[in-house]
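<goal> How does this chain fold?
<body> The protein record starts here
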Amino acid sequence: MSDLTAAAARASADEKESMPTMGFLDHLEELRKRIVYSIGAVAVGAIACWAFRERIYGIMQRPIMDALRANGMPDKLVYLNPTEPFNLYLKVAALGGLFLTSPFVLYQVWMFIAPGLYRNEKRYVFPFMASTISLFAAGGYFGYRIAYPRALNFLIAFGKQFQPMITIGEYTQLFLSIILGMGLIFELPIVVFFLAFLGIVTPAFLVRHFRYAILIIFIIAAIVTPTPDVINMCIFASPMLALYALSIGVAWVVHPDRRKAREQAGK
């Protein structure tokens, strides 16, 4: 009995230690500190990427260059304002800095929410960071290598009888919309992880509403894809369906009912 009492006391002490109380002003100060650290890191990353701005943008414009060459058109983008190239390179350097320092920024996000977690829940920091970065990179890579080139080839070939005059600003906006959009869409398992971890959604709920999820996924794919054809829409929708199925498994693993069952089985 004394051993059980001592174990309970240690558990209570660990819980108090891992759940420190913070006032509202303390939360604001912590948030300010994390934002300042993140902005400083992104600024340093942007300065570093400025030296490689032309090479970075060369990678960004490769899909449109390939599409233009494949259709026998001049592979050259244009600009309409003398300040546009300089502003474009500033944006490219800033985005490059954000991607370069994203692990540090995500760590700052985790450090902000960590005081509200139990000690045993804080072990998710490295899986959280690794999975978030990996999924976003996978989404961007899928958009860059598969979805976006197919969409560009369709659009350029469709208007082949006209002479294109594609500006660097319009192309960059389209590129970022597709690549960042796919990267964010691939974060679906992370969103479901937090919702299931907090008990807001259950695996049964996700399975029960699978047909509605398919409808919503195809609506999102129709919005994201820049082309009106069904084939490209299915290309955009197929990874989202796979991610939704993966999210069901994630919800099953981290839901509070499953965690309690594992804890009871381990006793």
The chain is about 80% helix and 0% strand. The longest helix spans residues 125-158.
